[in-house]
C-alpha cells in the first residue's frame, strides 16, 4: 500500500469478548461518541450481525441496515454506502445490523471486504461492535482490525474464556493488536482487577469502573452516558480511552509521514550504490 493511501485510510477497531453481557455495546457507543467529541470522523459497524443492538443503545430508528447495503452491492461506492448510514446527533454514523437474526447469513466475507474499506476511507475511525466469541463472522472482523479491544470483567467464567480467547488469538497471530479492557473493574469480586493482567498474561489493560446505574440507564434510554453523564468516573474512563486510542494513531501517522534518520541514511546509501 502506498504511503499516501495509508495516511488516508482510517483505523478499524474491533470490540470483542469471550462472554456475552460484558459491555461491548456500551463501550462501543460511548467510545465512538467520545472520539466524535474530539472532532474525529467516526462510524460504527454493528458487527453483532444476529443480535446487534447499537441502534437501540443510541436510540436510532435505522431505516436501513447492512442487509440493504448487501442488496445494493453491485452499485456500491462510498456515496451510496453513506446513504445507508444512520446519523446520531453526536455526529457518529452507524451501519446497523439486520433486524432479524436469520439475515446474518447474507453478510459474506466478500461483502465485508467491500464495505469495510469504504467505511475506512470516509472515517478516521470505524468501530465494530462484535458478536460473542470467535465465530466466523467475528474472526473476519478481528482479522481486518488494526486494533482489537478484548473486553472482560472480573467473573471467573469470563476470565477463563478470555484467557482461552487470548491464546487462540495468539495462535492466529493476532495477539499483538489486542488490548485488554477490564470492564466493571471496581466491582466487588474475589478477583481484584490489578491481578487480572498476571492471570491473563496481558500487560497494560484499560480499566473501566463499575457503575451499574449509569450503565444500565444509558442502554435503556438510548443515550450514551458520555453525552449526559460526562462528569462521571465512567465517562472519564472512556474519555481517557479515547485519548489513548487517538494519540496512538497520531503517532502512527507521524511515523509513516516522517522517515526515520536511519531509513534516510539507508536510502541514501542505496541510491549511492545504485548510481555507482
Ligand atoms: N462499567 C459498567 N458498570 C456497570 N454495568 C455495566 C458496565 N458496563 C456494562 N454494564 C452492564 O452490563 C450489561 C451488558 O452490557 P452490554 O454493553 O449490552 O454488553 P454486551 O454488548 O457485551 O453484551 C448491561 O446491563 C450494562 O448496563
Ligand atoms: Mg452487545
Description:
The protein is α/β, with parallel strands linked by helices and 276 residues long. The chain has an 8-stranded mixed sheet with strand order 3-4-2-5-1-6-7-8, with helices on both faces. The radius of gyration is 20 Å and the shape is globular. Strand 7 (178-182), helix 9 (196-200) and strand 8 form a beta-alpha-beta unit. It starts with a helix and ends with a helix. It has one domain (7-275): P-loop containing nucleotide triphosphate hydrolases (Rossmann fold), CATH 3.40.50.300. It has 13 helices and 8 strands. The protein binds adenosine-5'-diphosphate and magnesium ion. The site of magnesium ion (MG) has 4 residues, from helix 2. It comes from Bacillus suaedaesalsae. Residues 11-178 form the AAA domain. Pfam families: AAA_31. This is P-loop NTPase. InterPro entries: AAA_dom (IPR025669), P-loop_NTPase (IPR027417), ParA/MinD_ATPase (IPR050625).
CATH superfamily: P-loop containing nucleotide triphosphate hydrolases
The CATH topology is given as Rossmann fold
Summed up, the helix count is: 13
Mean of the pLDDT scores? 91
In short:
The protein is an alpha/beta fold and 276 residues long. The chain is built from 13 helices and eight strands. The longest helix has 25 residues.
Features:
276 residues; alpha/beta; Rossmann fold; globular; binds adenosine-5'-diphosphate; binds magnesium ion
Task: Describe the protein's topology.
Layout: H1 3-8, E1 11-17, H2 24-36, E2 42-47, H3 54-57, H4 66-71, H5 78-82, E3 86-87, E4 93-95, H6 109-122, E5 125-130, H7 136-144, E6 147-152, H8 156-171, E7 178-182, H9 196-200, E8 206-207, H10 212-221, H11 225-228, H12 233-257, H13 261-275
Parallel strand pairs: 1-5, 1-6, 2-4, 2-5, 6-7, 7-8
Antiparallel strand pairs: 3-4
Helix pairs in contact: 2-12
